[in-house]
Design goal:
This protein is of the alpha+beta class and 196 residues long. It contains eight helices and five strands, in the order H-H-H-H-H-E-H-H-E-E-E-E-H. The chain has a five-stranded mixed beta sheet, with helices on one face. Helix 2 runs parallel beside helix 4. The longest helix is centred in the C-terminal third of the chain and has 22 residues. The chain is elongated and about 50 Å long. The chain binds FE2/S2 (inorganic) cluster.
């Protein structure tokens, strides 16, 4: 069985921390398009520096491909001079990062105390039904991620939901259903225009 190249342990000697498997091993897994490697290289070329580039770069990658697969994290680690585990740690710490593909629309229903008192469960149920997704899941057409979250800081507008970055207050189940229908219709129209 082929062994990964021995790159030493993170923190050994004076060398910068390096990925265990390295950039070439990450590239060879081919689960993402080749353009992502050039994108990362170009970003790091343009933004010289150290590990402070990690989070902005991860955001840019996620904007581009929708998630941060392991091999991409390993590639980034190698290129910045970190151990993969340091990048995994950042990705798993921040809720904004995900390692699995996300849907086009991120729908979050606040289940914090104020929203709970304002019957946010009914809104969540209506959204789950209309999106055809369980909380924490993705809809069968890949259009919606539905999540139940804690206070989003708009308690005075309870019950609140977020669609993307937009906060909607005093949401009724009916409004929530209509929102999903509108987004689905718009997606259908744009698919029709592009011939998908
Ligand atoms: S509890 Fe829902 S926004 Fe605060």
């Amino acid at each position: 069985m082929n062994q990964p190249p021995d790159r030493g342990r993170p923190g050994d000697g004076d060398e910068p921390l390096s990925g265990f498997y390295g950039a070439e091993e990450a590239r060879s897994r081919r689960s993402v398009g080749d353009e992502i490697w050039s994108f990362i290289d170009a970003y790091l070329e343009e933004h010289r520096g150290g590990r402070e580039r990690l989070i902005p770069l991860l955001h840019r990658i996620q904007e581009k491909i929708g998630c941060l697969p392991c091999e991409v994290q390993e590639y980034v680690a190698d290129r910045i001079g970190l151990a993969p585990v340091q990048v995994y740690g950042v990705v798993s710490f921040y809720h904004g990062f995900t390692t699995t593909p996300r849907a086009r629309h991120q729908v979050k229903v606040c289940m914090g105390t104020a929203c709970h008192m304002a019957r946010s469960q009914r809104v969540l149920d209506a959204l789950a039904d209309r999106c055809r997704a369980e909380p924490g899941g993705i809809s069968d057409d890949g259009l919606f991620n539905l999540d139940a979250v804690r206070c989003i800081g708009a308690c005075g507008m309870a019950p609140t939901i977020m669609v993307g970055t937009a906060v909607h207050g005093s949401t009724t189940p009916r409004q929530a259903r209509r929102m999903v229908d509108d987004l689905r219709n718009r997606a259908g129209e744009s698919a029709g225009e592009t011939g998908e």
